[in-house]
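Format notes (please read before filing issues)

Several people have asked whether sequences and structure tokens are stored in separate files. They are not. Every record keeps both together, in the order shown below: the sequence lines, then the token lines. Line labels are part of the format and must not be stripped during preprocessing.
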Amino acid sequence: MRLPSEMQPGAPGRRVRLLLALASGLAVALGQAPFDLWPVAIPGLALLFQLIRTAGDMRQAAFLGLAAGTGHFALALFWIIEPFLVNVARHGWMAPFALIGMSAGLALFWAVAAAVVRGLGGRALAFVAAFTLVEVLRSYVLTGFPWALIGHVWIDTPLVHVASVVGHHALTLLALLAAAGLVQLLSPHRRWWGAGSLAMVGAAALWGGTVIGGGPGQGGTAQADPAGMADRPVIRMIQPNAPQHLKWDRTMIPVFFQRQIDYTAAMGLDPAQPRPDLVIWAETALSVILENAEPELEAITLAADGVPVVLGIQRFIGQRTFNSAIYLDGGGTIRAIYDKHRLVPFGEYMPFGEVLSQFGIHGMAASRGGGFSPGAGPRLMDLGGLGHALPLICYEAVFPQAILGAPDRPDFLMQITNDAWFGTYSGPYQHLAQARLRAIEQGLPMVRVANTGVSAMIDGHGRVTAALPLDTAGWLDAPLPRALPPTIYALWGELPIMLIILGLLGASVGREIRARRAK
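Then the structure lines:
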């Protein structure tokens, strides 16, 4: 009789295995921005696979997945405590519950995947398919939260360009394939499998390097080619750097508004530089609601001196509140309005908000118990000579489906955000990394304007061509890169990767059935 693996001589005990699983999750989190340590993350995933495949049963495997997931999300999403510290007296008590609760809740997806892998005999294909599938599911279930996906460890490497073919979930599949390959490479009877899988990942990386003619470093930044950008429209990004705890302070509101006015009015200071074709302010750039903002809009129009402006503002329709972006033409007329349609749970709205408001619990960014109302959905904004932009307000840029659902292909992506909520360490950089990933998936440039940074111009290869650093007040003029031809992912969306996942999972199930029949 074969003893369970944890009872075999020399095998680590359950507590040790749980600690190892926790450490594996922490290692995977180090692959996320701002660390970008994929050489640590992939061995971390390999350790998790080894622990799962040698677990005594599905229940033990599930606990290992839960421990690994909790460690991963606790470190990768540590920034989520920052919003609760903006108003400590009101929300501070929620911070530890939010971090622990969200980390453990998201880790349930990993627990399910681990149990499935063990139930399918601990096979490598099952590991790749099951964990990729649960990462897809957590991108959609309960409004979805596709943040800190396993595949994000590749964003600063040439492998990221695979996303232009089969999307960001393919990056997760490749990370898991690499990890499984490492484990199989050490198995006497599976070395061919390990070598083959690592060769596939290596080939994908080599192909990614040829997309823009360079290595991993060029995935992040690039200098704009002056000759190639000579005829491109210029966009001015306004970054007021208003810390969240001061943003709505009545004594500071005039200071931040005047700062943005001054940056907008800085036209023609350098005769060698062209006037911008568009000025963009960040999310909720104005403290007043749209219905009462006539004086402020007049001041903005005067400062812009004939240049159109896009800015973030709140507006009311009856009893409903919207987080919006408006487009002012050169004469100050509002030509387009976009309402954010994908809201942040517990931030911009509270589930059962009207009930919870009776107990003094509100969404942190909401002015009413029910919070903001969602807009109608993705829509293009006609910016005249600049073409059509797809507005993305803050959190919306982490959802590829928000772009795939647009009524038509835009000329560029336009994200306005207030990353002051995310603190000054990992959150803003993870948000920027995902913005770069959206540009790669679609082959579209993105202009990203953030209240506290990082504001950036991103080309269709995901490279940052110009940027304002985090926690810096200023403005930056940058030419808008050209759009690339529609990518395969833009045309086919999630269908190819879902077929691949289901194919791998089906193959794993088939092999397990055959193995059990052979016993």
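For reference, the curators noted about this record: The chain has a mean pLDDT of 90. The first helix runs from residue 14 to 29.
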